Amino acid sequence: MSKAETLRELLADGEELAIVCHNNPDPDCLASALALGRIAAAAGIDERRILYSGDISHQQNRAFVNLLEVDLREFDPESVRDRAENSLVALVDHSVPGVNNEVPEDVPIDVVIDHHPAEGIEARFVDHREAVGATATILTEYVSELDVAFDEVLATGLLFAIRRETLGFLRGVTRDEYEAARTLHDYADPDMLRRLSTPAVSGATVDAIADAVDNRTVKGSVLISHVGRTSERDALPQAADYLATLEGVETAIVFGIVDDEIELSARSTDPRIHIGNALGDIFGDVGSAGGHREMAGGQIPLGVFADLTASGTDAELVGIVARVVTNRLVSGLKLASDSGDSGTSGNSADSGSDAN
């Protein structure tokens, strides 16, 4: 049997399905969850839940949920630990319990569909394709093969997710993404796609991106910057996307303090660097980090700085975090101190000042 048929057979034996999104889900995760729910409904599962942890904070993610009316519920770890015998648990766009999700590590998983690099994946059904550009591509293939109906909402969500995940078919795109887009094109709503692509941007997001511009340090073709403390988690990848377009920059890494974590976002077009592996090597001992060759991220618990900042101010904390993280990146990426520093301002990481 094909992967799609094997999945349908597994779902047909279930009575409930909990589809767990990764923390702070993006359109690829949300659209994939929506599609898997439709496949489960066609297989006879009446009780389906899409669950998430973290925030729906990025303006595009909020627009996606609102315009497509995705029914999301907050994730309760106990709901998957103490589940009925015929209740299934699926992970889409992530693959390992406890990694970028709140799923307890000892919870057995029934379905995993993902395209991110990962090891140690265990589930009754696994479709893990690192080569494809988006998890939504895989789900589009399933929906088409299983003759599940494409309506405007589902097709628009999947097509937007593929476009967003591949930055408009420019990053990590494969033939499969083009094939999926061709399948979805006739069903998708062009007006809704435009509205999803151009949501309103909050002032706080603009401020955070401006801080990243001001605080940038360029060493050769690598740009490192920070936004200080921010409530706009999703401003980090937006800032990284923007700064990666600067002339001469091949790798852009932006970090900042969000709640009780240091968040990192990175973009790279340098063929010599696998930025996901690089971040994993640099920060794996103090947090979690990883991703693709061209796009990656990470989280470091702020508690690792507790002893250094127990009696300091928030401005001092930002300064210490900026220096330590920047120095780790410089050392880990083997950037010589004389490799052409440029573009720094008075609020650079080395100054230790608050970026807010």
Automatic annotation (TrEMBL):
InterPro entries: DDH_dom, DHH_sf, DHHA1_dom, Oligoribo/pAp-PDE_c-di-AMP_PDE. GO terms for molecular function: nucleic acid binding. This is Bifunctional oligoribonuclease/PAP phosphatase NrnA. Residues 220-308 form the DHHA1 domain. Residues 18-161 form the DDH domain. Residues 336-356 are annotated as: Disordered. Pfam families: DHH, DHHA1. It comes from the Archaea.
